[in-house]
């Protein structure tokens, strides 16, 4: 095979591999993605057995821990709709009432079950003062 | 003080505008005086911004709460060190720090190249001043650090306790230094394309700044991970968070650039690729800054009330569009001088390494920006989690580690089978040995970790072998003891052996990541004093709670530090474990066993919080409720004990592996020592033809291929040198 043809073949093979890999990446990202939604959207759209990435604020006075399960409610940033969440797994230290969190949940009956170790608490913003209603809740 | 700060910002904007105009006029009109004036405008900008920064810093240190940013992020009770660092904990202050660091690093870069590539430097000056001007405009229009309120509040909100962590003091300056240094190659890249001067000098200029950016950005990332592990308490150091990913992407492309620049230097290849990497790295650094400040993506580090999205989108759009236009319009200039001769060559391996790094960056980019992509395509915002990232990044990381072992030792241009056999037999055996040891230790249930350990052993074998060969050659030539020979080896070829040390560091890092990801055992427990539980292979007993209130030593006595903690007794198979490093302390009164004081929730809090905590702690004690959460224990039972000896390759690679037909360096050294009347150079000249042939063969086998021609017009031709001297790192002086 002459060098020019060899280069063309190599280029075609490399591009084909890149296209296959990119397609796999795109396909899996859409199939593995969880919709990121607020509590009010969750109440409207949630289907049992499907995962959602719930983003909102932990409702004051809603946090209870019982036998390794952390129960709390999440509401929209602007207040309003609240959804109850039961979560097991690691709880980040900054978790507390009034703080924004992101947790992956599935609907089960009237409650939403948090996926294990999926709870992340938004960093107390470096760029804003802590909300007045925020309080420690260990 | 605030008017002085605002005046500085206005003056800085004027200086930016003047500097851009002077630089462009100087380079287009051939006026050297204006080019120099543009460069000096950058120095002036650095001075002006330093004054502005000093004004803000003094306001923080003096608790001047008339400044809004001081009142929002500091307080009288905030310790002085954190008050000083609180400057960059606010949106406004961090923008000022970004602009200041950009101007300082740019001044240094322009000073160092003031007598070289004047046209390129002039264009680069204009680009850098344009970037600095953009940040100054942000501070004047959107987020001014010098906004004031009258009358001033009596006390500030204070720095968030989570940010009161030693590494958090230097994490942002490190990260911003990395970001700003990434923009210097970008500016010189645009300058080189505009001036049509994409030659060897350009690569030499950007290389040192690319290395500095890589180093500081990497240090910033590691410091951030350390803070996340210690302070956020979620049991990890990397969560594929959008903001974390934003800092990793330019680091990955910067790593690729550092490797592919070598190919351009040596062989004049990959010019388009390198230019694209330079532009991409700079743009990704700006995108990282945008992501942090725009609030466009959900992130644990998201910043509330961010309004800087639109200006950043405009800047990024301009950067991407101009980069594409310049690369496409200058494509002819960027044509490679040589082509790949073989897929089994150092060039090919470096290219593969680049593709893996860029592939990693693309995967992370896609996953990070997927919420925006999915919203644009499907109308619904979705995001991918850590399992999706792991699915792609783990195999790519394995390939990267493997290539980092092959790349440094394979020959340039075309590797022969004999060369491959000689260079890779030892490391491959070491990897197999590690595999056997790990299987015996029973870690077959973690195949990815197993593969990573074996790859790391291979890398350490390759690099260790290079050090051993070099040291032996050096000893043969100069008769030095091993430590002296090793030091001299590294000193005389810092670039090559420095790179090897970095590769060892990366192998160790990946071993750590694989081990901590695969063998970690995390659990959340609620314990009352006296209760115990098993965490992995450890028994954790909660001995007692602790609470310490430290009165503030500040003059106003406005607050106190409250530390809540727990004394834990940790044992394994009946043996108590001594406390390790980190936030634990051995508080063992006489006659008592080792106990750990774990303070997962210890926080320094200001007066109000302290008052809030005290009744809570008292109420807990009264109710006898669980008060401690024992978490995290590495499941070290499953960690292979024989792993460590297997992964200590430098000492395990036998220095006697050289075949009998190889150069007998020791005998040669003895011969040299027996002839003290002849100097070393003379001895080399007097080497027999057979010795010279063997030496050349040794060099070829070692994969160093120092005789590889530097056809790339990019580098002055090297003087020929004898093989042992080359192996030993003796580098002839080059005329620049």
Oligomer: heterodimer
User: What Rg of chain A do the Cα atoms give?
Assistant: 22 Å
Question: Order of strands in the sheet with the most strands of chain A?
Answer: 2-4-5-7-6
Alpha-beta classification of chain A:
alpha+beta
Largest interface: A-B, 44 and 59 residues
How many β-strand runs of chain A? 8
Q: Kindly state the percentage of residues in helix of chain A.
A: 25-40%
What's the alpha carbon Rg of chain B, rounded to whole Å?
A: 29 Å
- Using the alpha-carbon principal axes, give the shape of chain B: globular
Under the CATH scheme, the architecture of the largest domain in chain B is Up-down Bundle
| Biggest beta-sheet profile of chain B | 5 strands, antiparallel
Number of helices of chain B: 24
Percent range for helical residues of chain B? 55-70%
In short:
By secondary structure, chain A is α+β, with helices and mostly antiparallel strands.
Report on this model:
The complex is a heterodimer of chains A (138) and B (736). Chain A is an alpha+beta fold and 138 residues long. Chain A folds into two domains: 33 residues; 86 residues, Nucleic acid-binding proteins (OB fold (Dihydrolipoamide Acetyltransferase, E2P)). Chain A is built from two helices and eight strands. Chain A has a five-stranded mixed β-barrel with strand order 2-4-5-7-6. The longest helix of chain A is centred in the first third of the chain and has 30 residues. Chain A is elongated. Chain B folds into four domains: 154 residues, Four Helix Bundle (Hemerythrin (Met), subunit A) (Up-down Bundle); 217 residues, Four Helix Bundle (Hemerythrin (Met), subunit A), CATH 1.20.120; 195 residues, no CATH class; 115 residues, no CATH class. In chain B, α6 crosses α7 and α9 runs antiparallel to α12. The radius of gyration of chain B is 29 Å and the shape is globular. The chains are: A alpha+beta (138), B alpha+beta (736). Chains A and B meet through α1, β1, β6 and β8 of A and α12, β1, α13 and α18 of B.
């Amino acid at each position: 095979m002459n060098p020019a043809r060899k280069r063309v073949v190599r280029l075609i093979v490399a591009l084909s591999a890149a296209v296959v890999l990119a397609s796999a990446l795109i396909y899996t990202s859409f199939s593995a993605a969880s919709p990121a939604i607020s509590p009010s959207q969750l109440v409207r759209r949630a289907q049992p057995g499907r995962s959602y990435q719930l983003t909102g604020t932990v409702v004051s006075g809603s946090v209870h821990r019982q036998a390794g399960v952390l129960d709390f409610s999440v509401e929209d940033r602007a207040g309003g709709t609240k959804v109850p969440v039961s979560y097991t797994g690691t709880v980040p230290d900054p978790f507390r009432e009034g703080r924004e969190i992101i947790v992956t949940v599935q609907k089960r009956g009237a409650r939403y079950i948090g996926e294990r170790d999926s709870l992340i608490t938004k960093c107390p913003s470096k760029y804003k003062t802590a909300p007045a209603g925020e309080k420690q809740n260990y | 003080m605030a008017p002085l700060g605002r005046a500085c910002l206005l003056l800085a904007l004027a200086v930016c505008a003047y500097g851009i105009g002077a630089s462009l006029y100087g380079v287009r009109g051939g006026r050297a005086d204006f080019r120099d004036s543009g460069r000096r405008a950058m120095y002036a900008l650095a001075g002006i911004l330093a004054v502005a920064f000093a004004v803000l810093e003094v306001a923080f240190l003096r608790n001047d709460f008339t400044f809004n940013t001081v009142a929002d992020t500091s307080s009288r009770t905030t310790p002085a060190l954190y008050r000083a660092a609180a400057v960059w904990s606010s949106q406004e202050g961090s923008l000022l720090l970004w602009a200041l660091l950009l101007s300082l690093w740019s001044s240094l870069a322009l000073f160092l190249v003031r007598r070289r590539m004047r046209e390129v430097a002039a264009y680069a000056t204009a680009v850098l001043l344009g970037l600095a001007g953009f940040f100054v405009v942000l501070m004047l229009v959107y987020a001014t650090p010098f906004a004031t309120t009258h009358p001033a509040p009596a006390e500030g909100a204070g720095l968030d306790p989570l940010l009161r962590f030693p590494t958090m003091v230097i994490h942002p300056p490190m990260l911003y230094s990395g970001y700003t240094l990434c923009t210097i190659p970008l500016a010189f890249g645009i300058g080189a394309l505009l001036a049509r001067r994409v030659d060897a000098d350009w690569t030499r200029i950007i290389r040192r700044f690319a290395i500095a950016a890589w180093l500081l950005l990497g240090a910033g990332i590691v410091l951030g991970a350390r803070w996340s592990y210690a302070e956020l308490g979620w049991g990890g150091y990397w969560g594929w968070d959008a903001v974390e990913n934003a800092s990793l992407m330019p680091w990955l492309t910067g790593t690729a650039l550092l490797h592919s620049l070598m190919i351009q230097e040596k062989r004049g290849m990959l010019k388009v690729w390198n230019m694209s990497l330079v532009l991409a790295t700079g743009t990704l650094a700006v995108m990282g800054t945008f992501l942090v400040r725009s609030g466009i993506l959900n992130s644990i580090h998201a910043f509330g009330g961010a309004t800087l999205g639109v200006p950043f989108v405009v800047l990024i759009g301009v950067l991407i569009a101009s980069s594409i236009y310049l690369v496409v319009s200058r494509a002819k200039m960027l044509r490679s001088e040589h082509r790949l001769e073989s897929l089994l060559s150092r060039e090919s391996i470096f290219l593969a390494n680049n593709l893996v790094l860029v592939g990693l960056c693309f995967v992370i980019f896609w996953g990070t920006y997927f919420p925006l992509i999915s919203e644009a395509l499907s109308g619904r915002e979705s995001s991918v989690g850590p399992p999706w990232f792991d699915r792609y990044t783990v195999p790519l990381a394995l390939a990267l580690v493997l290539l980092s072992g092959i790349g440094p030792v394979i020959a340039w241009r075309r590797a022969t089978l004999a060369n491959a056999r000689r260079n890779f037999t030892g490391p491959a055996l070491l990897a197999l040995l590690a595999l056997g040891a790990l299987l015996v230790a029973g870690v077959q249930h973690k195949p990815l970790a197993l593969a990573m350990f074996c790859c790391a052993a291979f890398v350490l074998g390759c690099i260790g072998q290079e050090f051993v060969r070099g040291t032996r050659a050096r000893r043969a030539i100069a008769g030095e003891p091993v430590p002296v020979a090793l030091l001299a080896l590294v000193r005389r070829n810092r670039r090559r052996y420095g790179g090897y040390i970095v590769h060892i560091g990366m192998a160790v890092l990946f071993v750590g990541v694989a081990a901590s990801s695969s063998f970690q055992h995390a659990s959340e427990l609620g314990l009352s004093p006296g209760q115990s539980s098993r965490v992995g292979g450890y028994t954790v007993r909660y001995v007692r709670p602790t609470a310490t209130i430290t009165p503030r030593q500040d003059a106003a006595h406005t607050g106190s530090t409250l530390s809540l903690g727990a004394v834990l007794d940790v044992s394994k198979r009946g043996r108590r474990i001594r406390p390790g490093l980190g936030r634990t302390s051995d508080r063992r009164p006489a006659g008592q066993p080792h106990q750990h004081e774990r303070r997962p929730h210890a926080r320094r809090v200001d007066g109000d919080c302290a008052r809030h905590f005290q009744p809570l702690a008292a109420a807990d004690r009264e109710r006898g409720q669980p008060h401690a959460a024992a978490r995290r224990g590495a499941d070290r039972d499953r960690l292979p004990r024989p792993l460590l000896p297997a992964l200590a390759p430098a000492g395990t690679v036998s220095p006697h592996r050289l075949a009998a037909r190889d150069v007998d360096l020791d005998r040669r050294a003895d011969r040299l020592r027996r002839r003290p009347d002849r100097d070393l150079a003379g001895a080399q000249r007097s080497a027999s033809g057979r010795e010279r042939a063997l030496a050349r063969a040794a060099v070829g086998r070692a994969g160093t291929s120092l005789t590889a021609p530097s056809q790339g017009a990019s580098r002055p031709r090297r003087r020929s040198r004898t093989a042992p001297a080359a192996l030993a790192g003796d580098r002839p002086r080059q005329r620049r």
